[in-house]
Amino acid sequence: MNGIYYYLIAFAVIWILVGIFHEKLSNHGVELNFPVVMWKTKRLRGLISRISNFSPTFWRWYMNVGIIVAFGAMIFITWTLISSIPSVLETPSVSIVIPGVEMPGSSIYVPFFYGLIALASVLIVHEFSHGIQAIGEKISIKSIGLLLFAILPGAFVEPDEEELNKAKRSSRLRVYAAGSMANITLALIAILLVSLISAGIPSYFAEDGIQIDRVVSDSPSDGVLKEGMVLEAIDNHEITDADSYTKIVSSFSPGDNVSVKTDQGTYSITLGENPNNDSVGFFGLQANKHFVLVNDSLGPLPWILFELLELFQWVFMLNLGIGLFNLLPLKPLDGGYMLEILLSYKLSEEVYKPIVNALSVVMAMIIVFSLVAGFI
Questions:
Q1: What domains sit in the chain, N to C, each tagged with a CATH number?
Q2: pLDDT digits 0-9 by tens, 250-272
Q3: Cα atoms found within 13 Å of the Cα of residue 68, Cβ hemisphere only
Q4: Is 137:167 a contact under the CB 8 Å cutoff?
Q5: CA geometry: angle at 76 spanning 71 and 77, to 5°?
Q6: 3-class secondary structure, 190
Q7: In 10 A of CB 185, how many CB atoms?
Q8: Could you tell me what percentage of the chain is helix, strand and coil, using 3-state DSSP and rounding each to the nearest 5?
Q9: What single DSSP character describes residue 317?
Q10: Is the CB of residue 45 less than 8 Å from the CB of residue 144?
Q11: Residue 111's pLDDT is what?
């Protein structure tokens, strides 16, 4: 059963329960305004205030740097999105991230467990940072909560809009930059941890071939090969490491019938067309290095290094990807509001608002086009 159906069932149950018990749930901060369900609370405002008041000077200067980083990242992600247009039909640059679900057109599959933890880190760090900076700029927080837009989950920190609009432009820039700056910072911490863990793995393990991590649904290997199998050879070409595996699989063409030798037997597969290059044969496998424990001084404990490695890899990828995406010059994303504030230093409202609105439409069209191209 495709993972998307579990999400649809879960969200349908949520909508039904909220619809039936709406009056009772409204006493506990639940609001229903189709297609949005929101749960608001004031309980975490004290925690955010304590964090903000711990070192106001640090947060202010941290976000001063964050403004510069955010605008640099805005230029980078905008250029990346625009430059991807010519190849969007082959490799869509934008994809919806749903842990445990294979999204059409996306070469990235986010595993359910690690994906949920990583996605939670994105939301918590992003929204809490908005709140921490808002408090530091003397802007009140009305509520904190979770939302469900149709079937898309999210989180929010709700500042006092009147106070936010009256705040200095530099203050508003810091508040809007805070979320993505926190995501980028967490991504850097995660990739540092990935590097440290990777450096420690050779002390306990030795590389021993390639292991299948995932078999793509409806691919040539689906129903033939299985997760966990160790690849030993393909058409009598021995697989010893990642380099030999990459070289071998890229040498085949669509329609080739190949023999795949694994630690669980030998199988025959007729290759399809690679979604990213129709001249290359497609197995439909996601594989990684296979290791054996050679230093058992700590017993089986070192195996947890691989679990931590995968977790921090996804924390890095999702925080960086979503953090950068949020800086696109597109309202209602933070990047759209930041660009609007920046232009207001030199332009009147009658000039900068139409500019940002037009740019938002263009960015939205590119994103929708990329998403649709993925499904096609």
A1: 40-198+314-375 (no CATH), 205-294 (2.30.42.10)
A2: 888 888 888 888 888 888 888 88
A3: 5
A4: yes
A5: 100
A6: helix
A7: 17
A8: 55, 20, 25
A9: H
A10: yes
A11: 85
The predicted model scores a pTM of 0.83
Which amino acid type is present at position 233? Answer: A
Rounded to 5°, the CA angle 272-256-268 comes to 90
Q: Are 356 and 341 in contact (CB under 8 A)?
A: no
Nearest to 55 by CA among 117, 1, 132: 132
Residue 55: the pLDDT is: 85
Residues present in the chain in total: 376
Q: What's the pLDDT at 375?
A: 67
∠ CA 250-256-261, nearest 5°, is: 75
Q: Which residues fall within 8 angstroms of residue 227, CB to CB, at 6 or more apart? A: 212, 213, 214, 215
Closest to 303 (Cα-Cα) out of 209, 205, 211, 213: 205
User: HSE on the CB side for 114, CA within 13 Å?
Assistant: 17
Q: What is the pLDDT of residues 15-65, one digit of tens each?
A: 888 888 888 888 888 888 777 788 888 888 888 889 988 888 899 999 999
pLDDT average, residue stretch 190-203: 94
Maximum C-alpha span of the chain? 71
Which stretch of 152-156, 159-163, 207-211, 300-304 has the lowest confidence by average pLDDT? 152-156
CA distance 71 to 335: 8
* DSSP helix/strand/coil, 194: helix
Q: Measuring CA to CA, which residue among 162, 141, 137 is closest to residue 45? A: 141
State how far the Cα of 368 lies from the Cα of 362, in Å rounded to an integer.
Answer: 10
User: Residue 349: what residue type?
Assistant: E
> Residues 266, 280: contact at Cβ < 8 Å?
no
User: How far is CA 7 from each of CA 64, 103, 112, 147, rounded to the nearest angstrom?
Assistant: 39, 13, 11, 15
The pLDDT > 70 percentage for the chain reads 94
Q: Are 353 and 340 in contact (CB under 8 A)?
A: yes
Q: Determine the residue type at 5.
A: Y
